[in-house]
Amino acid sequence: MENPVIDLKGLTKCYGSLKAVDELNLKIEKGEIFGLLGPNGAGKTTTILMMLGLTEPTSGKALVCGIDATTNPILVKRKVGYMPDSIGFYESMTALENLVYTGKLNGLPEKEANRRALDLMDLVGLGDSARKRASVFSRGMKQRLGLAEVLIKRPEVIILDEPTLGIDPAGVKEFLSLIHQLSREQGLTVLLSSHHLHQVQMVCDRVGIFAAGKMQMEGNIHKLSQTLFAEDSYSVGITVREPLPASWEHSDELRNIPDVQGLRITENLVQIACASDVTPDIVRFFVAKGLDVMGVHKREFGLDEIYQKYFDNNLIENNAHEKSRSIFKRYVNKK
Amino acid sequence: MPMKSLAAFSKGTSIKSEPAANPTTAFWVVVDKEVTDHIRSWRLILLLALLALTFFGALYVSLSNIRSIVSNAQDPDNTFLYLKLLTSTDGTMPPFHVFLNFLGPLLGIALGFDAINSEQNNGTLIRLMAQPVYRDNLILAKFVSALILVGTLFFTLVLLMIGAGLCITGVLIEPVEVLRIFTFTVLAVVYVGFWLSLSILFSIAFKQTATSALAAIGVWLFFTVFYQIVVNLVMAAFIPRHTIHTEADVVGYNEMMLNVLRLAPSQLFSDATTTLLMPSVRSLGPMTMEQMAGAIPSPLPFMESLMVVWPQLSGLLAATFLCFAYSYYLFMRREIRS
ipTM of the predicted structure? Predict the structure, then answer.
């Protein structure tokens, strides 16, 4: 990473005594899709605003395409397309007029802006609604229009804040695959913030887990799962035709297979925890015992588990629980 | 979202060869859009109707009395037919420039009270701010676009008035009258500009459009209704009742009171318009008998009248710039969130 497109150095933002973003360091390379994951109020939007020069950091630097976003926001905004989480359009204007306006603000001549706007509306699937007023648009349509708006200036970097909010599942898939396609074909760098894990998992090359103003972990999903679940990294479930007795005669023998650490039998499902991937050995064992194996399920840890694991032992939530418990107590005792 | 249409994105130039966007063109793009927005809005149509109604009402009243007014030899201004059209009345309706004294604020407030906060509430402000546009350009564009409309409106009305006067009376207009009337129009635009910048300031300071409208209307009401009462009360407490002996004392206190009253923009406006539209007005303060002695009641030349209202005009301009500078200060470093 000699020349990162986005380079945050010790970025800090305080609101009074509250540290919204705390000493954040992050590098994103050209052409990468980076997912910024975190619960509500983690400081994702604040970080994004600082990257665009829309708010000033208390300390630290945000460099985008090598330009300091705090001192030179206009240059940054020329290269970065930003889609805010709650996007709004001028309701008295048509969708096309809204797009052309943005295009003209970026220095495009009217004709060129018009041509690009129409092309992009086709691209995001709003070709038929170009002449409709933005006030009749549904949430999902506005989101698509937002993507078209981001692309009209032909940015080098796009920053999307909760882009999938309010779109139906099929739309999300389309939306994300379009972003993926754009990034791959045009070399666009994409920063995506979300709390929807599965969606981020689908498209992101790298994710960062962000909580309480700090980047808790970053890397690709595979790496994250390895570091977080080092102790019980594999789990294999075998389904057999006939239910097995609780005290199965072969269980000790199964435990003797190298790396198998434990097993649990519930009716016809056998859950086996192991230190390395020994699925073939286990299946061979079952077949040798003459059992009818109906299904083998190797459980991998996805982002959901990572997220769960991380935020379950999160300090903030514990505090919140504590608080609500005490409020609850107070109400109960009042009587 | 078909794959093939992705070509649209890269058609023509590559991503990087973007023409450098010039911030000044961005400014005019915003002005252009704001003017279009205003013209399409119901708000402007209503204001237009209100203003046109008062204007033509006032014009009708003065036109129907114009013969007797102009033939009044006692009046030193009786040769200025067109100025008379703007200022004379038979008492049933205030003349147009007095009407403007309280319609002007309404116009300014209505065009500016939701300039920034409605964009913020609609979530368009953050989108706009993510484009390469300077922040001060945005507020300046809002201000300029509304002022363009107001200016066009006033000049249209005044030209209509002159045209109607020409058609009805057949009297040729004097160049000096044209100058006076146009200066009056510029003054009216400046006056509206002050209220516009005040309401834009409130639209930045307050998040809710209703609050900012209320605040601006509150200031307006305070200056039109309560300010005089408050000043009178305070001055009455100040002035020693039994110890005034000399004429100079009376004049001095009067002068002081007028100056305090002139802190109100409406007072500045009415001072300035009166002087401009009634050429025989020579001073805006009290005059002693010594000063009056030897003065022939005759109209002042245009430049002299302009010299008399110069402080008023610069006062209005200063107040406008003050509001604008403060809104700039508030808006420049504000964090913009939706």
Answer: 0.81
